[in-house]
Write a structure and sequence with these properties.
Length: about 130
């Protein structure tokens, strides 16, 4: 099945699983024969590069200004595209590396809960 706008127009966070996103991304990569380029180092660099592109619209803005940027429809769509690029690169990295994203996030959240206990860090980012 070829990709097109209709394929994902009804996707939402509340109804689409990480597994479904990974499978869709893997199918997208397979159809283009891009797996040959998907070495962990290349994909890690892609995550970093795409993250840099996500930063660009917010460069030199205040916190309040950064929120206002998201209220501009054209800017918001461009930012959503960058979010998708970051997520896509990360999903491709997980696919190529055999990393279970949900398990990795769960394990890291458990570590962070120990590192940043609520009673010490509520409302603050450092002691």
């Amino acid at each position: 099945m070829a990709w097109g706008a209709a394929m994902a127009e009804n996707w939402s966070d509340n109804e689409t699983t990480v597994g479904q996103l990974r499978a869709a991304w893997e199918r997208f990569v397979y159809e283009r024969d891009w797996r040959q380029f998907h070495w962990p180092k290349n994909l890690a660099m892609a995550v970093a590069a795409e993250s840099g592109e996500l930063l660009e619209p917010f460069l030199w803005t205040s916190g309040e200004e950064s929120r206002a940027i998201l209220d501009q429809p054209q800017q918001r769509e461009a930012i959503e595209d960058e979010v998708a690029d970051v997520a896509g690169a990360l999903l491709a990295f997980c696919n190529a590396s055999g990393i279970d994203l949900s398990r990795a996030i769960g394990r890291k959240m458990a570590k962070n809960a120990l590192k940043y206990p609520v009673e010490s860090f509520k409302g603050r980012y450092r002691l």
